[in-house]
Structure formats: structure tokens, C-alpha cells
Amino acid sequence: MSEILLLHEPLIRLGIFLLVLAAMALWEFRAARREQRIRRWQRWPGNLSILVLDTLAVRLLFPLAAVGAALVAAERGWGLFHLLSAPLWLALPLSVLLLDAAIYFQHRLFHAVPWLWRLHRMHHADLEFDVTTGLRFHPLEILISMAIKVAVVTLLGAPAVAVLIFEVLLNATSMFNHGNVRLPEWLDRRLRLIVVTPDMHRVHHSIVRRETDSNFGFNLPWWDRLFGTYRDQPGAGHLGMTLGIEAFRDPRELRLDRMLIQPLLNPKPSTAQSGGQEPQG
């Protein structure tokens, strides 16, 4: 069973990824939340190319990835749930929940530590907000994130099937909550009780620092409410808010080569542009 899961894990994740990506792209085309001034042909090549580099980097340096770490931990009896001999019906949901909490705190860490923010700000520097923004992360950030994830999986002794479910959910919800899609207000209100919605997460991509430093959740919305980082709406409204980072307003920064070297750059932001300042951590 373990060998079958490890063998088919990439195909399972790829199949669901392509399905969600296509569904979200179609939804954006049919019912966009905001009009985009920067066209897809200017943004999507860089955003999708960085995804390819991220995937190659992870497969090269973490060939077994998080699911493989779970299988190794199970074989050797490592981790809390193995030490407690926790049944699968208990270990599975707790693993998904605790892994999501770990991602929440990791996200806050990437905002709080200056050198980690330099990596993470590439995600925020997208000048628009759509499904491909949810795929846009610097390769070094992805590698650090995977190392943290592997450590958490090992410490928990999370079941491999729980890790696979978590990975699929995280990838799918990241594309969903970055979607430039319209939801009826009543539905958004109900959905954000159990999942991070696009309107909830869009606040996090505001150019205004106090809004950027809120709504850190990717999958479950509960951590933001529990730890005081929840913000209901952007001050300027969803149609009036400015997205991105003040220091990276030039569309040429959307090119792949510029995205890769962005952590090395230290341009001076123009605070007059948004009335705020670039998050520094």
C-alpha cells in the first residue's frame, strides 16, 4: 500500500492540480471579481514558469517530499502518533489540522523575519490577483517550506494518506482563494467559516501593510480568528484596493528573470502611492 501511494502520489496531485487550475481559470473568465489592468499574457508566463522551477527544485532536493517523509516515519516508528499508537481515524484528521496550523505559523514567520520576507514578497509583488498568483512562490521559499513540512510530518508521525490529503487540499485551496472570482456575499460569509475565500485572502495582498499582515491562512480560516490576525474587508474595498508591493510596480518585474533575483533587490518604495509602507517584518 505504501509503495503504491508513493508511486502514484505525483499523478494524483498533478491530475487534481490541472482540474482545479482549469476550473478556476474558466470561472475567472466567466465571472471576474475585478477588472485586470495587467493582462494574462504579461503575468501568466512568469507565474507558470516559476511553478515549473519550484516543482523541479523540490523533486531534486526532496525526492520523497512530505508523503515520503511520512512513509519513512511510519517504517521507523518516528513521531508522536506512532509513539502513542494512535488509530488512523484519529491521527488522520488531527494531522491535517496540525499541518494546516503549521503552515499558518510558517506564513507569519515569512512576514516577520526580514530575510524570509525578501523571499516571500515575490508572491506579493504580483500586480494582479488570480489563480496563478497562488502558484507564484520563489524556489528558495518553496524549499524552505518543504523542509519545515517534512520536519512537522516527521515529528507528528502523520499518516502518509493524511499528508497526501493535506497536500492536495493546500494546493487546491491556494488556487481557489487566489481566484479572481465573484461569490455572492451571503455565500462568501458562510464559506469563510470553513475555508479561506478569495475575498478573505485578497485582503492579505493589499499594498497597505496592516492589511498585508492579516488573513495568513491558506486553507482553514480558523487560525486567523483564533490568533487575532483576521481582517474582514480591505479599507478601500475589493474594487478600490491596490494590490502588490510598492517597491515593485513596474510590469517588467513580472518577468521570470526579475522574479528570481527579486530577493536580492532593495528598491526604495514610494509611500505616497498607497498611504502605507512595504511590509518589512
From TrEMBL:
Q: Which UniProt keywords apply?
A: Membrane, Transmembrane, Transmembrane helix
What residue ranges are annotated as transmembrane? 12-29, 50-74, 86-105, 146-170
Q: GO cellular-component terms in the record?
A: membrane
Name where it mostly resides. membrane
Where is the protein localized?
Answer: Membrane
Record carries keyword Amino-acid biosynthesis: no
Q: Which GO terms describe its biological process?
A: lipid biosynthetic process
Q: Where is the Fatty acid hydroxylase domain?
A: 94-229
**Gene Ontology molecular functions:** iron ion binding; oxidoreductase activity
Q: Pfam families from the entry?
A: FA_hydroxylase
PANTHER family (alphabetical): STEROL DESATURASE
- What is the protein name for this chain? Sterol desaturase family protein
Q: Which organism is it from?
A: Billgrantia tianxiuensis
